[in-house]
Amino acid sequence: MQLSGMWSELVVPDDLVYFQCRDRYLVENPGIAAWAVVGDGEIDVLRALASGVESPADPATTERALATLVLNWLVYLPGQQPRIRPAEPALRMVYYAITDGCNLRCPYCYASSTRKLPGELEPHESLDLVDQIADMGAELLILTGGEPMLRPDFFTVADHARSRGLRVNCITNGTRIPDEATARRMADTFGKITVSLDGGVAEVHERTRGKGTFARTANALALLNAAGVRPDINHVVSPDNIGALDQLMTFLDGIDFGNVRLMNHTGIGRGAEDGVHFAWEHHRDVQRFTWTNPVAQKILTEGPKAVKPCSIRGNCGLGGTEIYINSLGDVYPCKLVTGPLHKAGNVRAQRLADVFANPALSQLRTNTVFEGENLADCRRCYIRAACGGGCRAYHAAESGSITRNSRHHCRILRHSMITNIWRSNGFTGVDLLENESTMTVPRLIRDGTVHPVYDDWRTDTDPADAVHRRALPVLTNRTGASSCSA
């Protein structure tokens, strides 16, 4: 039987939306993260189907259009609406802040790191922790801090993790890699090394990192390259350095690196007290740079990525696929969610597997954008299944709770997601600049009106006020994927 013969039985999701670039349409199914770019023929057939009227096209054109829409999960066959079955995720990745000591004092530091804390895990306790992580079946251990290279048994812990079959990565400011021998040791030990860099010239980098740090970090990058390492770069982008992104990329043009991850400044840790607010116009400045600058090919901006259709995210992974363990052995859902309310336990008092079973973690990993109370704010969003709710710490920095969304942050997430989907389908930054008003505004297929959550940011409290709200928690360490199936 032809699809057109089922016309009255075919199902169009109620909140199916479209975005437009000239005569091309990005149609997106919010419930299962499905999308496809179609032309006028398909969109006309889809609108007619959603409105309950006859197809405006001839039978052959209608049949082809319906086949495209069904195959891309934008229209469902009778009785074939997909059901999302979120499975409880297994632990995959552990961030271990091996020390809270740090030789820098970055004003936005999410960990508020300064000096080594009394009572940090002893060397034998760190090795036992690695054994527990491996025994739980995790795949990846990421050593962070503070500055992890300040810890005397840094390499011993990493070597032991590798001997247990774990992949081991490291996040460092680079200032502790002064010579070829250290760079070679890093190359031999870590699968991925991420170096923090806040600017492409000393003047910009040292505003946050401190005097003399740029030359040391630049030297570390050169030494790592010489040792065969292509480091990734973490770059905190703020109103103070957005205008210097071109200098950053010019500097990196002389470095063999993997990717540059731009992380928006947020009010977490010391960032809650530094008086800086990353506003919508700053997000737009970053977007315009990455869309049009030829040196920006390897920049990874904040926000959800357009992986592929039906890559469903139930949540961000906190307390499930990843956890964070601080230098004292306290276990938290992630490295950015470390308030007293979210402490799940301590590895000195319990085995890690028992801590992982604590409701403080299990309740987070089993709540999704589809069910549960934690992500209820996401239920009506038009990117919910692709986004998974976004970073809960970023939300909490403005909303006051990891269970409540910041509409300002949601606005950035939605814009990032949709523009990334367009770009993944071959559309350019120039296309986006010239047609942004239609390419990023979601309209409901059923009646052409703008999706009701598109403008919800307008009713939010000015997020700049979050910088001054002392009622908000300062999140510091001081005290899964599904698929479409019928």
TrEMBL record:
Its cofactor is [4Fe-4S] cluster. InterPro entries: 4Fe4S-binding_SPASM_dom, Aldolase_TIM, MoaA_NifB_PqqE_Fe-S-bd_CS, Radical_SAM_PqqE_MftC-like, rSAM, rSAM_sf, Sacti_mat_StsB. PROSITE patterns: MOAA_NIFB_PQQE, RADICAL_SAM. It comes from the Bacteria. GO terms for molecular function: 4 iron, 4 sulfur cluster binding; metal ion binding; oxidoreductase activity. Residues 88-293 form the Radical SAM core domain. It holds the Pfam family Radical_SAM. Keywords: 4Fe-4S, Iron, Iron-sulfur, Metal-binding, Oxidoreductase, S-adenosyl-L-methionine. CDD domains: Radical_SAM. Coiled coil: none annotated. Gene3D superfamilies: Aldolase class I. PANTHER family: PQQA PEPTIDE CYCLASE, RADICAL SAM DOMAIN PROTEIN. This is Radical SAM core domain-containing protein. It comes from Micromonospora sediminimaris.
